[in-house]
Design a protein that fits this description.
alpha/beta, 14 helices, 374 residues, 36% helix, Archaeosine Trna-guanine Transglycosylase, Chain: A, domain 4
């Protein structure tokens, strides 16, 4: 049987565990599954493989502690349950991993932490140092302080960003279904698991409608979006059921769940941040020739290709690059502010100094600071 990837080539792995894998619909903790998960991670560490665990479940654990059967809907209630549950969740993991002589480290992140470039790099260095020390970082979204505007909404996207952050080789998304189906199995009994996704993931997001469990926030859509990030990052991704021996089979490269292979031309670390984490300050619209140059030829953006500038931004800001209709093509770091750019748009690079009286170069955005997003 042909392997999906060479298991011996895996040096860094991110495993994401959803709330439904930790707490059942009846509120009981799935100790059997969590014990197998810890044992599997312990075996990986013995082989020298570095593992980061992205774990949901804090809100579910907090609701369980106060006897609440359903996921809270009000933000203060979510934050309170997250604070109550996070300590219980980490105590649970600490108890499981200490028996395997493994140290755990709690890391709480919010979208703000990954949007700021300095904090993004600090998070990366902290995680890499923890791995060097032989610890198992356990990451969760910082739900106890994050408000709706800065939440990821689920840990699937967070796990993909973390995988890109540490240059992981594989992301495993453990969920409550067997993988991505070619239809809704609740409505179509003949629906089958898609073993491998080579087509554009956008085409599949609307097909699979698996909903999250009682305490989950994602569903299959968010997992497919996480898989799309991994493909862009050049990282293997598998979506599989978090039960039984599925995790071991996935790690062995066996055809379990749905496999999304990496892109042949992955983005580098700066491009990952630009495309997926950096805050956007404005939009620059391009003519068809510039769109083709940026997207197909991976060229720098020249002022002659700019047709309009939306918003106000400073030099060094991250902006969306869009076609004339406003459809996003890429993101990049501009050399000129919005006022300057409106003055030189449509001009040749050699004319910039004559128009402005000074120049930062003949390119509006250098190709090294452009990240394709579609």
């Amino acid at each position: 049987m042909e392997k999906r990837f060479d298991p011996a080539s895996l040096a860094k792995i991110v495993i994401k565990v959803g709330s439904s894998s930790i707490v059942g619909e009846d509120g009981t903790v799935r100790l059997g599954f969590l014990g197998k998960l810890a044992t599997t991670i312990g075996r990986l560490r013995q082989r020298g493989v570095e593992v980061v665990l992205v774990s949901s479940g804090a809100v579910a654990m907090g609701a369980r502690r106060i006897g609440e059967p359903d996921r809270p809907t009000r933000i203060p209630d979510k934050q309170a349950c997250a604070a109550l549950g996070q300590t219980a969740l980490m105590a649970l993991y600490e108890g499981l991993f200490v028996t395997l002589s493994l140290r755990t480290a709690q890391v709480l992140l919010s979208r703000d932490d990954l949007e700021d470039r300095r904090r993004y790099l600090n998070a990366r260095e902290a995680l890499l140092r923890l791995l060097e020390l032989g610890a198992v970082p356990i990451i969760n979204e910082n739900d106890s302080v994050a408000v709706e505007e800065i939440q990821f909404g689920d840990n699937d996207q967070l796990s993909a960003l973390v995988a890109g952050l540490i240059n992981a080789d594989l992301l495993i998304l453990l969920t409550n279904v067997d993988g991505v189906f070619n239809g809704d199995p609740r409505e179509n009994p003949d629906a089958q698991v898609i073993e491998r996704i080579e087509t554009p993931i956008d085409e599949l997001i609307g097909i699979s409608s698996a909903k999250p469990g009682a305490f989950g926030k994602g569903g299959m859509r968010s997992k497919l979006e996480a898989a799309r990030l991994c493909r862009h990052f050049g990282i293997h991704c598998v979506i599989a059921r978090g039960r039984g021996s599925a995790l071991t089979a996935v790690l062995d490269g066996e055809p379990v769940g749905t496999y999304i292979p990496p892109a042949p031309r992955p983005a580098n670390a700066r491009q990952r941040w630009l495309a997926n984490a950096a805050p956007v300050a404005g939009k620059v619209r391009l003519d068809p020739g510039a769109v083709s140059a940026v997207r197909t030829d991976r060229s720098s953006l020249l002022p002659s290709g700019v047709v309009a500038v939306d918003g106000e931004f400073s030099r060094g800001a991250v902006v969306i690059l869009a076609d004339a209709d406003g459809n996003e093509v890429a993101r990049g770091v501009v050399r000129y502010n919005s006022v300057e750019l409106r003055t030189i748009l449509g001009r040749r690079g050699s004319e910039i100094e004559d128009v402005l009286g000074y120049t930062y170069g003949d390119r509006v955005i250098h190709r090294d600071y452009i990240a394709l997003t579609r």
